Each structure stands twice: as structure tokens, then as C-alpha cells.
Amino acid sequence: MPRFAANLSMLYNEHTFLDRFKAAAQDGFTAVEYLFPYAYPAQELAQRLADHGLQQVLFNAPPGDWDGGERGIACLPGREAEFRSGFARALEYAQTLACPRIHVMAGLAPTGVERAALQATYEANLAWAAGQAAAAGRDVLIEPINPRDIPGFFLNRQDEAHRIVQKTGAANLKVQFDLYHCQVVEGDVASKIRQYLPTGRVGHFQLAGVPERHEPSVGELNYTYLFRVIDEVALQCGWTGWIGCEYRPALGAVSGATSKGLAWLRALTTPGV
Length: 273
Prior knowledge:
Strand order of the largest sheet: 1-2-3-4-5-6-7-8
Number of strands: 8
Helix content: 25-40%
CATH class: Alpha Beta
CATH architecture: Alpha-Beta Barrel
Distance between the termini: 15 Å
Shape: globular
């Protein structure tokens, strides 16, 4: 069975952020991910992980002006110094949190800028980040995101992401394979798992139901089948990563919403359920 990490940016929103670690552990999670750690001292987050027996498996590098609508700056010409400074900060947090993976968001493609220039900037920034991360023993991840959730996002498809990783040639540059985004943009998810997981270029999975982005038990994707596919292929190729639960509970942020929606996970982990 795959290993699941709670995404604390989207789950347990009835709690303050720092209280979500305890809530996730109480529901049986042993790992967490979230978007950004930078609003809190790294040591405080590390203490929450230690207090509740959790691993930090993923977070994002600084994305630029998130509140202003930016969704990463890696593809933006002229922002290279800011990108490097932000990634250096991410590596410092990763060290304190013992986090093996940092996701670098590509950013929104600005109008009036040729895609070739954005691509060149993106690839150069990724190559630099991979080199810095390798020296620190970390992986850099890139994620194709569907243009419905983030219109104008530079990277949308699995084949695009894998070509970039392969071209860059850094062993620690990998793809964050979000099954939800893949279904929205491309479909044929099981075949893509079988195609890409054995390459060694998949560093992490994420999930959500399609199309509403609720629990994986809600929507058009048959996750029970997809988990079996991941197990089968992972056993063949030796993949031992995590699946991040990056979805919005269907009950919203009411008290106990996340826990009540975890029947799908209890069915996988509890014999006889």
C-alpha cells in the first residue's frame, strides 16, 4: 500500500496551522507536506514534527508575491537573483526540518514574453537549484499544474516535465506527479504511472478527487485501482516515495471535516473495513 502524507495547507483547516500537526498524527498520518513554512521559525516546525512523530516530506520554495497572485518565479527572466535567494532559504528550512524534497513552482507565463525565453530561464534556474540541492542531499521537484486551477501556469503536462528533467540530467531533479492535475489536463492516468514511475524521475505523488478536488473517494477517478497500479509498479522498480493528500475536504472547514472524510484511508489501512 502506498504511504500517505497529510497536506496541512488543505487539510485540517478547522485548526490553526500549528495545531494541524497533532490532528494529522491523531488520524494516523506519519508524514506531512504543505505549501510554505516561512511564516514560522524552522525550529518551531521541527519541534511540532518531533512532538507528534511526523516526517516532513515536501514543501515549496518561495513563490514570489503569493498574495499578489504570483505562483512561482522560476520561469521569469530577470528574477534569477530572487529565485536563488529564495531557494537558499528553502534549503535552510529543509535542513532543519530534515525534508528531502523541495518543490519549485514554475510560475505564470507573462504575456508578451516568448516561451523560448521562459523555457531557457526555467531550465537554467532548475539546473542551478539541482546543483545546490545535491550538495545538501535534497531533491528538487517540478509539478505540472492544470490551467483551470491556475490559469497561465507555465508547466501543464507530464511529458513536458519529464523532458525538462531528462534534458537537465540532474539525478535529484524529479517530477511531482499530481494525479488530480494529470487527470484534468490529460487523463489516461494509470498508463502514465506505468510509463513514468519506472524511469526514476517521479519524486512524489499527490492526489485529489476530480473534478471538485475533494477526497479521492469522491469523483471520476478510481483511486482504489490507481493505488494498486502504484503498488505494482513501485514493487517492480523499487520506488518508496509518498502520496500527498492535497485535497479540500468535502465538508469544508467545519469541526472534524478532515477526519470524517478519511473513510477512504481507513478502508485501506484497517483490516476488515
